[in-house]
């Protein structure tokens, strides 16, 4: 399997032309200076600088947070200033394209813009039709440019107007970051080298059931930790104490338990209270007490999983293996980050992704040892489970 995406050739005339580019600068304040924030911002820079160098008028669209209405907190205006540290001078435009007078004013400003300038529009989710992929909204944005370039992999699993809608209205292309994401992730679904080991954590199993099914069909082993493991333990009628449990996933977890290759923790770290510096105890999974709260995988589990990872030729990691909000916890995730990093970049092909996984890589300084770190969490999982057939990607496939 190899996806060939349409790209804007180096000979394509863009000088003096307004070009719409969808980026993913959804980097909330907590992540602004972290690995997730820097990756999303930095990976959009090559496309922007390339278009500026060629004399285009670059018009950027992005979402920011999940606003219920237009507000200052979710405005993209601060992002324009944030990008100055990368040497980019960006003009912010607050107008709504859904309002005729504002669209008219915005259109004139962009038509009068100088070649090689960069412009950032207001949060696309301030527009009511964005998440419904409203055709009138997509058409309104399309009037601003001659071409559309999607360089926002982390948003490609959403059939939104700024992702899939505009692509139907204009000649559309994939940006370099999107092409790179697709190329690396396809290696996980197109004859990956065996042993293929998946390490899956996080909080909610319900969001990862499709990819779990895909991985269990492909992987030699899938190691499940974090709160993701509790529905499986519950399905096995085991005591989980006061640990977080997504009850709606227990039935599905029971079905997944029947598939070979799924491995659960054999011991865990527990506490009786979630505080900033909790007192931890190690217990076997069959000895969890009624008042216990699972916060991490235990040392015996890490020892066993380390041996498995040590044989891998392909590794996928998505989601922490426990509660990482406290510095006292998260040792399992940090340990596993180092174990995987030691195996990748040579002996195995390793990919990590997911917003909750990236902080662990930053803490352990292991990101550079992974062959690839994806900027997408949900998009990465859906790409794998749907074998690349995401709304924002299928529309950009070469015909």
Fold and architecture overview:
The structure is a single chain. With 399 residues, the protein is of the alpha/beta class. 33% of the residues lie in helices and 16% in strands. The protein contains 15 helices and 15 strands. Strand 5 (147-150), helix 6 (161-169) and strand 6 (172-174) form a beta-alpha-beta unit. Helix 12 packs across helix 13 (358-364).
Keywords:
399 residues; alpha/beta; six-stranded parallel sheet; 15 helices; 16% strand; elongated
Q: Determine the oligomeric state from the structure.
A: single chain
Helix-strand string: EHHEHEHEHEHEHEHEHHEEEEHEHEHEHH
Derived structural class: alpha/beta
Strand % is 15-25%
Give the neighbour order of strands across the main sheet. Answer: 3-4-2-1-5-6
The tally of helices reads 15
Based on Cα principal axes, name the global outline.
Answer: elongated
**Low confidence ranges:** none
Number of strands: 15
**Mean pLDDT across all amino acids:** 93
What is shown here, in short?
This protein is of the alpha/beta class.
């Amino acid at each position: 399997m190899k996806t060939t995406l349409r790209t804007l050739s180096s000979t394509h005339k863009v000088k003096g032309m307004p070009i719409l580019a969808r980026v993913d600068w959804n980097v909330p304040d907590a992540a602004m200076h972290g690995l997730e924030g820097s990756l999303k911002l930095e990976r959009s820079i090559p496309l922007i600088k390339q278009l500026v160098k060629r004399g285009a008028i670059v018009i950027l669209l992005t979402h920011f947070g999940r606003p219920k209405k237009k507000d200052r907190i979710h405005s993209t205006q601060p992002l324009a200033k944030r990008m100055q540290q990368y040497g980019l001078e960006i003009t912010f435009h607050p107008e709504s394209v859904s309002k005729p007078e504002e669209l008219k004013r915005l259109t004139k400003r962009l038509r009068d813009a100088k070649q090689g300038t960069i412009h950032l529009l207001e949060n696309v989710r301030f527009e009511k039709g964005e998440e419904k992929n409203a055709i009138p909204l997509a058409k309104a944005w399309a009037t601003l440019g001659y071409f559309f370039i999607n360089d926002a992999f982390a948003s490609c699993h959403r059939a939104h107007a700024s992702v899939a809608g505009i692509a139907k209205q204009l000649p559309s292309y994939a940006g370099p970051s999107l092409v790179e994401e697709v190329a690396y992730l396809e290696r996980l679904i197109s004859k990956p080298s065996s042993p293929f080991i998946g390490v899956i954590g996080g909080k909610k199993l319900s969001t990862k059931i499709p990819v779990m099914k895909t991985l269990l069909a492909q992987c030699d082993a899938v190691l499940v930790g974090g709160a993701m493991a509790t529905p499986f333990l519950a399905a096995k009628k085991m005591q989980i104490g006061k640990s977080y449990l997504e009850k709606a996933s227990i039935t599905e977890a029971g079905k997944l338990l029947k598939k070979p290759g799924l491995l659960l923790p054999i011991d865990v770290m527990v506490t009786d209270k979630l505080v900033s510096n909790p007192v931890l105890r190690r217990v076997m999974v069959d000895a969890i007490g009624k008042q216990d709260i699972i916060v991490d995988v235990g040392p015996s589990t890490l020892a066993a999983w380390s041996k498995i990872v040590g044989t891998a030729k392909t590794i996928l990691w998505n989601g922490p293996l426990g509660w990482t909000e406290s510095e006292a916890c998260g040792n399992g995730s940090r340990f596993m980050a180092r174990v995987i990093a030691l195996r990748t970049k040579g002996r195995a092909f390793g990919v990590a992704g997911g917003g909750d996984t990236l902080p662990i890589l930053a803490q352990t300084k292991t990101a550079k040892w992974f062959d690839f770190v994806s900027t997408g969490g949900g998009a990465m999982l859906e790409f794998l489970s749907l074998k690349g057939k995401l709304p924002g990607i299928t529309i950009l496939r070469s015909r």
